[in-house]
């Protein structure tokens, strides 16, 4: 497959001023007619006196029926069908192009373009799916005004597209015809169409300037009672964007549709967001707290795209982080404002440290703004999204809240209606604040996770504390040498009494150090004693900090740091040190013993009434096996598993009494509310329950059984069932699993959860159960949610069983990836990730993983998506 390079970007030769689309929907035989008003792009590069270049249109899996220009059929001699499009000879700088083509939504299992999901027509056009609908310049810098007519049989009473509905009537042959007009020019990737027999929940929102906006959520009738939380979240997001960014909604209607078959979480199509059902539907009986929170954040994310993505869009797909990094930052701040800020930050940083750092250290490592790709769908990554958001957060930290707002105001005003670059975003931030971010731009172009080695000294004679910071960044594919980054390093200094010291005469207790050189020192004066540094507060940059903290110092930070994030982080460092020691002891054949200080520290956290229970739950959670693996130079999976399981068991045993007290205190019959304070209590209660069940003591397992039987909400029910599945004997776990399925078999989202509980079970035999689950009537290989729950759960969230010593876990994944590639290449290419990291594993396990990956390559012809990932990972 061809590689596309950022350096080869050229402005489009032609622009499309208006796009009229006409659909006649039939499952296997949908007719698409398009009428495009086209003109030569004055900004396109052309040699003087050059004849008009050919018009290149993208098109994949289309049957061309006819092509005409200005009302005349174009003869075959004037156009060429290419493997992925059309090249048309052009005679005039302005013309009207009409194309008729046929597509087959029913057989479209890729879930890109127009497809059927449970009998409902829907589209997914980002990044390059519009070319599966009709021939078009399918690139984000071609922005056009769309008018869309949909004609469908009567069993599809709901026919939706972008913008405002301007026509609805019956056709002469008794079908329904609806026309939508979108007044905002947009790239084709924001086009959407939905047709189905859907119910709607309606509400309205009055914007700050007093305009009334109709809000509608569409779903199948059976889910209509599951839309309230999404609607509430939408209204909160609309208000928040007005208050924090001064951004109002711009159309008279905003629609959300839930579909069961969807490759990602949701899609921000203009005025018509399409959501994976799992990311929009919730009720207390069927959804966990985590789902409620995910819905709030994704509804916010897609809504925020209306400005950061739609009104101002990307010039090309290398600029993806322009909209995604910025929008993830916006949704994270929204969630932080709606819930606990510290806990949200801990969750986000945990994801970054586990999965994004692994991406940065793996074969697919790429900068936030990649330089090249074979298949753009492979670059919807944690680096582009999550690290991209951290880059925007660093700009926020450097400029402050007001400066950042000035920058975003200028960015939206300067580029409204345009397709722009990451460079334009940074330039707006600079121009609005009169700062120079030249060096900072390296965050967009250099891949890899920087490492900061920090050391310190105290000059008692002068009362000066000196911090020395050295930065480096490991080589990544195609980038051996890195230049120093501009890193905002937020620090505080703790005195012996545990309080923050003043860092200047104004009494400031936290400073953001501007680290920009390979090695740099920072002096703090006027100190009476050597302080203890609290480094990288709030995780002010996506880096790894190395500082030789002693156990006592970490215990001190855990107790005293005024920065809640760093309190948690001190606990993680402490646990990491203890787990490293256990791994070493295991490898060297010594008896295992958990550091008593760690047990004491966890006890004090558990008994500290001043801490937010959600923070306590986070602080009691050991770093995941994946996080431990990421931090190792070479991964010894067995040692990680043994050490972590031993530590969990030892903690459970030592803290049984305190855990039980805490569990009993929180186990009360409150009516369910998905509000931060209640979520926090449930989180701590269920963390305690999980530890208690680790002991596998019958009386403690009966607590889980009782909670499972009496739970009035899904959070408690699922947590109890997870504990039973992981720790109870079959005669207790199996009936629980069966009764759960019996009760919820009609509910797709709960069945997905049920699949996930089983595929992530740490018990021996899980691989065999996973194979059985794939034969279950509710499993479909064509549904990404089911694939993610069963196969993805096993490969990504079941470190213990996936890494079984015989390598069968890897072979299983390879087999499934090959099968899936024929149906849905995007999902196959994502699913293969766990076995692409084979080089980091020690011994035979690494070899087995390598062989599994090779077997994918040798299985026959791969899609472009899968080929890119596998070939880059075998190098
Ligand atoms: N902007 C949306 C991206 C998306 C997508 C990309 C590739 C394949 C399928 C997809 N579905 C949605 C999601 C978002 O970031 O909001
Ligand atoms: Zn997004």
What can you tell me about this protein's structure?
- The protein is an alpha+beta fold.
- Among the domains are: about 5-195, Immunoglobulin-like (Sandwich), CATH 2.60.40; about 315-445, Neutral Protease, domain 2 (Orthogonal Bundle); about 450-545, Aminopeptidase N, middle-beta domain (Immunoglobulin-like); about 745-875, Alpha Horseshoe (Zincin-like fold).
- The protein is about 40% helix and about 20% strand.
- It is built from 26 helices and 31 strands.
- The strands form eight sheets. Strands 6-5-9-3-2-12-15-14 form an eight-stranded mixed sheet, with no helix packed on it. The chain has a five-stranded mixed sheet with strand order 17-18-19-21-20, covered by helices on one side.
- The longest helix has about 35 residues, at about 380-415.
- It is globular.
- It starts with a strand and ends with a helix.
- Bound molecules: (3S)-3-amino-4-(1H-indol-3-yl)butanoic acid and zinc ion.
- The site of zinc ion has 4 residues, from helix 3.
- (3S)-3-amino-4-(1H-indol-3-yl)butanoic acid (HT7) binds near residues 124, 127, 268, 301 and 826.
Descriptive terms for the model:
single chain; about 900 residues; alpha+beta; Immunoglobulin-like; Neutral Protease, domain 2; eight-stranded mixed beta sheet; 26 helices; 31 strands; globular; binds (3S)-3-amino-4-(1H-indol-3-yl)butanoic acid; binds zinc ion; EC 3.4.11.2; metalloprotease
């Amino acid at each position: 497959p061809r590689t596309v390079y950022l350096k080869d970007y050229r402005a489009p030769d032609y622009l499309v001023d208006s796009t009229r689309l006409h659909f006649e929907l039939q499952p296997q035989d949908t007719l698409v007619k398009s009428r495009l008003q086209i003109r030569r792009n004055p900004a396109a590069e052309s040699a003087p006196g050059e004849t008009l270049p050919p018009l290149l249109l993208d098109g994949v899996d289309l049957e061309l029926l006819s092509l005409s220009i200005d009302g005349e059929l174009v003869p075959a001699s004037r156009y060429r069908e290419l493997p992925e499009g059309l090249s048309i000879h052009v005679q005039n700088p302005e013309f009207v192009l009409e194309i008729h083509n046929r597509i087959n939504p029913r057989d479209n299992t890729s879930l890109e373009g127009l497809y059927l999901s449970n009998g409902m027509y829907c589209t997914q056009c980002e990044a390059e799916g519009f070319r599966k609908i009709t021939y078009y310049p399918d690139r984000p810098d071609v922005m056009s005004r769309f008018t869309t007519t949909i004609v469908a049989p009567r069993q599809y009473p709901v026919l939706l597209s972008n913008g405002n509905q301007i026509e609805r009537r019956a056709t002469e042959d008794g079908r329904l015809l609806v026309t939508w007009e979108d007044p905002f020019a947009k790239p084709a990737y924001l086009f959407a169409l939905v047709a189905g027999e859907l119910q709607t929940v309606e509400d309205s929102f009055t914007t700050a300037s007093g305009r009334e906006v109709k809000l509608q959520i569409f779903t199948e009738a059976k889910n209509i009672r599951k839309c309230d939380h999404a609607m509430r979240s939408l209204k909160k997001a609309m208000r928040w964007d007005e208050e924090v960014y001064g951004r109002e909604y711009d159309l008279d209607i905003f629609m959300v549709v839930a579909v069961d078959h969807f490759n990602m979480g949701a899609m921000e199509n203009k005025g018509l967001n399409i959501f994976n059902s799992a990311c929009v539907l919730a009720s207390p009986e069927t959804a966990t707290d985590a789902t409620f929170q995910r819905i709030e954040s994704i509804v916010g994310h897609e809504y925020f795209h209306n400005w950061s993505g739609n009104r101002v869009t990307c010039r090309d797909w290398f600029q993806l982080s322009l909209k995604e990094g910025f929008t993830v930052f916006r949704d994270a701040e929204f969630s932080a404002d709606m819930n606990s800020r510290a806990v949200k930050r801990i969750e986000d940083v945990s994801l970054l440290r586990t999965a994004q750092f692994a991406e940065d250290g793996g074969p697919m490592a790429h900068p936030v703004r990649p330089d090249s790709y074979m298949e753009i769908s492979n670059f919807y990554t944690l680096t582009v999204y999550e690290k991209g958001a951290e880059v925007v957060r660093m700009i926020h930290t450097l400029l402050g809240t007001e400066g950042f707002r000035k920058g975003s105001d200028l960015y939206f005003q300067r580029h409204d209606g345009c397709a722009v670059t990451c460079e334009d975003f940074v330039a707006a931030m600079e121009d609005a604040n009169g700062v120079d971010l030249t060096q900072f731009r390296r965050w967009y172009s250099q891949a890899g996770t920087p490492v900061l080695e920090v050391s310190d000294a105290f000059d008692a004679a002068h009362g000066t504390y000196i911090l020395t910071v050295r930065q480096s960044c490991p080589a990544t594919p195609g980038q051996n040498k890195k230049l120093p980054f501009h890193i905002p390093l937020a620090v505080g200094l703790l005195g012996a009494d545990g309080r923050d010291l003043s860092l200047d005469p104004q009494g400031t207790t936290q400073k953001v150090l501007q680290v920009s050189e390979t090695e740099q020192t920072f002096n703090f004066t006027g100190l009476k004693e050597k302080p203890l540094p609290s480094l990288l507060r709030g995780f002010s940059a996506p880096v790894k900090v190395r500082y030789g903290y002693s156990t006592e110092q970490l215990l001190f930070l855990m107790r005293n740091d005024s920065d809640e994030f760093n309190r948690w982080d001190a606990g993680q460092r402490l646990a990491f040190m203890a787990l490293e020691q256990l791994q070493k002891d295991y490898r060297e054949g010594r008896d295992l013993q958990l550091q008593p200080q760690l047990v004491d520290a966890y006890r004090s956290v558990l008994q500290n009434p001043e801490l937010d229970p959600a923070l306590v739950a986070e602080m009691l959670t050991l770093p995941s096996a994946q996080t431990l693996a990421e931090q190792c130079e070479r991964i010894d999976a067995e040692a990680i598993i043994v050490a972590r399981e031993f530590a969990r068991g030892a903690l459970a045993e030592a803290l049984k009494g305190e855990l039980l007290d805490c569990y009993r205190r929180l186990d009360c019959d409150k009516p369910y509310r998905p509000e931060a304070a209640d979520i926090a209590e449930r989180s701590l209660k269920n963390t305690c329950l999980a530890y208690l069940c680790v002991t596998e003591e019958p009386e403690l397992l009966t607590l889980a059984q009782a909670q499972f039987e009496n739970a009035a909400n899904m959070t408690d029910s699922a947590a109890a069932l997870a504990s039973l599945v992981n720790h109870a004997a079959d005669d207790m776990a199996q009936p629980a699993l069966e009764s759960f399925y019996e009760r919820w078999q009609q509910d797709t989202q709960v069945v997905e959860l049920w699949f996930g509980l089983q595929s992530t079970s740490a018990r021996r035999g899980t691989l065999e159960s996973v194979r059985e689950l794939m034969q279950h009537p509710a499993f479909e290989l064509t549904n990404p949610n089911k694939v993610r729950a069963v196969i993805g759960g096993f490969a990504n969230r079941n470190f213990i069983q996936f890494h079984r010593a015989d390598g069968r876990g890897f072979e299983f994944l390879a087999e499934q990836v090959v099968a899936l590639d024929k149906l849905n290449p995007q999902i196959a290419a994502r699913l293969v990730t766990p076995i692409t990291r084979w080089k980091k594993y020690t011994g035979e396990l690494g070899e087995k993983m390598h062989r599994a990956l090779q077997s994918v390559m040798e299985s026959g012809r791969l899609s472009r998506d899968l080929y890119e990932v596998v070939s880059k990972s075998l190098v």
